[in-house]
Structures
1.
Amino acid sequence: MSMLVKKFSLNFLIVFVIRTIFIYVFRFAEFELDNSISMSLGLAIGLTYVQWMREDKTKMTKDYYNQNAKEFVENTLNADMTSLYNQFEKYLKKGDRILDLGCGSGRDSLYFISKGYEVVAVDYSEELTKMASDLLDREVMMLDMREMNFCDEFDGIWACASILHISRDEIEKVMANCESALKQGGIFYLSFKYGNKEAFRNERFFNYYNEGSFEDLSKRFPGLKVLETWRTRDVRVARKDECWLNILIKKEGFRVK
Ligand SMILES: C[S@@+](CC[C@H](N)C(=O)[O-])C[C@H]1O[C@@H](n2cnc3c(N)ncnc32)[C@H](O)[C@@H]1O
């Protein structure tokens, strides 16, 4: 069963159960409830529950980065990302404008700045934003990628291990935000832990993709052409058994003549 069908069935079940509870509670109180009112109440509570679950996942993950910022930076700042930079830079030229989306420590922004790119670094964690600002000696924007609204601004988006924290019911919104932020012909790098599931791990929420499930997602964005997907091992020695899915996308878009 596809993820969407499972999610729809679960939400439907929640709404149905809440509605039934309502009917019995009101009946017990000898108050006859109109069917459409009980359905609307069930729906409203069900949707509030879904929104609450969604925000809870985001809050837990963000709290993790805020509470463990120092340790996270120590563990990731010196990771060797050379081979990934090389793949991304094949499509860029000096002076191009790059959005480092979910920049964490600021490691990759520091590299891109040193290579002569114009870099905008953003993250939603207050603590990581401060630490990255110190590293880069410039302002790092505090921004939630689900809310961003850049338009035709970037030649490249670098989203290294960051969109992986967005759940399947919100990832299309984030992909659309990235598509809008890219210029025509812009390049978009993103990476996920390899697999096909959503799960909590070490107090953070993760959305895993493999080639097949990412292809299903990318089909919903005809203006984004997947150029390459490839697998890598984690560059941190302690995590070398973990596999990553890397993706490079080009914004082609459609021009109306
Ligand atoms: C696994 S870390 C990767 C950090 C960095 N890109 C790297 O490769 O070291 C995930 C990063 O994404 C950020 N992040 C997660 N969800 C975000 C969101 N909705 N908006 C902006 N940043 C987000 C986290 O704060 C964290 O810095």
2.
Amino acid sequence: MMAWTKKESNHYIFHYHIGSLAEKDIEEIINIQENCYDVISNCLNVEMKQKIHYFLCETPTEVGELFGDNEPCNGCAKEPNEVFAVYNSEVKCIGFHEDAHLISYKLSVPPQTFLREGLAMFFDKVSLGIPQYMWIKYFIDHGLYVKVEDLVINKNFYKYSDLVTYPIAGAFVEYLILKYGMEKFKAFYCSVNEDFNKCFSQVFKISVSESNMQFINYINCLGYNDTITDIIKNEIQDKNIIGIT
Ligand SMILES: [Zn+2]
């Protein structure tokens, strides 16, 4: 087993193996995460009281072992202030996502996976490097779109591929913040309980299903590029997505 070492920055303590790629790239990693922290923290108006311990691991198996559930995964956040992430030549699980989870949990931890992942994906902006709204446009045009009112039910959320659910969550949260403003979105994020529909219409004065229809209309107002449509098509064929997994 490779020995650990660590390096501290303003808001993080990075842990990585001596001789690893993470050690070689540590200054760049620090720069990226501090930028992410700065944007998330200012956008949500939340500060972490403790520094984030960011563990840069060799493999998904190692992430699962350190997280404690032994489920291999590329990246995960553990309350209150730990991130475990793969960083090797193929997978570099750094950026906004896990830090957005930890920082937003200081506001609230809503019961809906859709909402928690939506806020993290709002900061990511892209899935596989492609803007989320372009994924949604593709899903709408190819019968892969899943309605928001279905996805806010946790057992439904996990029925579909995360290549479908995560971009929908991220793009819908972005739409809410764009249309209603961050303060109203935060009021909703902090007040929502098991009754998503009731809380949603109390804050936004519209039902979830009406808002879902307006979201689809909004996506259809945006421009997109056929070359990107082809890239999405290839990604979806590679990952063998047929709607329900
Ligand atoms: Zn997440």
